[in-house]
Specification:
By secondary structure, the protein is mainly alpha-helical. The chain is built from 13 helices and nine strands. α4 packs antiparallel against α5, α5 packs across α11 and α8 runs antiparallel to α11. It starts with 6 loop residues before the first strand and ends in a 19-residue tail after the last helix.
């Protein structure tokens, strides 16, 4: 994390953590975040920010390891000058941060791989044509709906009580490629490129002609791909009695597009919106989405090949008998299980080949 190597203002910390600046000042006043005061200004060192992030971590492994390490330091350094104690503490924080970082990376990569394998497979879709004019077809509208449901999970955040800190899957992946733990000979390059391309595509705003017969409204809807994929995914997953939040989101999007409707009208329009964006546009985007997701899957495979070669130990001449050497930073049993499963996954080439979708499925919207 580049920010952890600097001295930061509270405003910069707020931007880095995506929090309100008043929240950062409150943390400082409450003593949760250490800061140095110069007149009316505060400055936070990268070391203090890293300690704050570890202390606030939802990972019990990180918290317990940090507490245990600092206790050992205190016992060993009673008669040692403060400067040496400070260096020892800084080293402890760095070690614990690296350990927590490796475990979180492994757990997240395993989760991402499982989600992508649920979406990009030959039970849901058929891969047709030859590169650079390949395309996919969902085997049925039910398979397309399942794809959208899993996709909305992939575009959402992890659970706050999960073994890793709460993050969106894409945000967590961006964090991994910005500071990878297993990068050798730039093995992370293709994964980094795949994530950036997908993120940039999702954030683009599109303009879609939309007729809403249920409320007799005609509009040119301005919406990002990320927004409509999450909205249709939630509508695919939930009954309309659990769709009021999506209806409010649609009402706000219509308002930004110059169409004013009330909450009841927005609820009535959900079926029209779903038919246009799920049945039509998602079907059109299916090939492009599958290509993006498959590139991320291949990127994970290529990124972890050096780690696989480092860790795998064959027992005798039987290729079916092998084990893995865990990285030093992996301590928890759950992280070890994820590491073992992940290494087994990247031991084999992804079962959906790399493919390039025809340009004719990328030019509309």
């Amino acid at each position: 994390m580049e920010a952890l190597d600097k001295v930061l203002t509270p405003e910069q910390v707020a931007e880095y953590l995506k929090l309100n600046r008043e929240t950062i000042y409150r943390y400082i006043r409450e003593g949760k975040l250490s800061a140095s005061r110069f007149g009316r200004s505060y400055r936070i060192t990268g070391r203090d920010l890293e300690l704050f992030l570890l202390a606030a971590s939802t990972s019990p492994v990180a918290r317990e390891a940090l507490f245990s390490r600092l206790q050992d330091i205190a016992e060993r350094n009673r008669a040692i000058p403060f400067e040496e104690v400070e260096r020892d503490v800084a080293e402890a924080i760095s070690i614990v941060a690296k350990s927590a970082g490796i475990e979180q990376e492994i757990i997240l990569l395993m989760a991402v791989e499982e989600l992508i394998d649920l979406m990009v497979n030959f039970e849901l879709m058929s891969l047709l044509g030859n590169d650079p004019d390949s395309n996919i077809l969902f085997k049925s509208i039910t398979h397309q709906r399942f794809f959208n449901i899993i996709l909305v999970d992939f575009l959402s955040c992890t659970d706050a009580k999960s073994p890793i800190e709460k993050t969106s899957y894409l945000g967590g992946l961006r964090g991994i490629v910005n500071k990878p733990n297993f990068n050798e000979n730039n093995s992370v390059e293709n994964l980094s490129a795949a994530i950036k391309e997908f993120k940039d595509w999702l954030e683009q705003e599109i303009q879609v002609p939309l007729w809403l017969p249920s409320i007799s409204k005609d509009a040119i809807l301005r919406i990002t791909r990320f927004q409509f994929l999450k909205m249709t995914g939630n509508l695919s997953k939930h009954n309309y009695l659990r769709a009021f939040r999506v209806a409010e989101e649609l009402r706000n999007i219509l308002l930004c597009s110059g169409i004013t409707v009330n909450s009841n009208e927005a609820l009535l329009a959900l079926a029209d919106f779903y038919e246009r964006f799920h049945n039509d546009i998602l079907n059109y985007y299916g090939s492009t989405l599958a290509e993006f997701l498959n590139n991320i899957r291949w990127g994970i495979y290529e990124y972890l090949q050096p780690e696989l070669q480092r860790s795998i130990v064959y027992e005798g001449s039987d290729p079916l008998k092998y084990s893995f050497r865990y990285p030093e930073g992996i301590k928890s049993e759950y992280a070890k299980m994820c590491y073992w499963d992940l290494m087994n996954e990247v031991k084999a080439v992804p079962y959906v080949r790399r493919f390039k979708v025809t340009k004719w499925l990328k030019t509309r919207y």
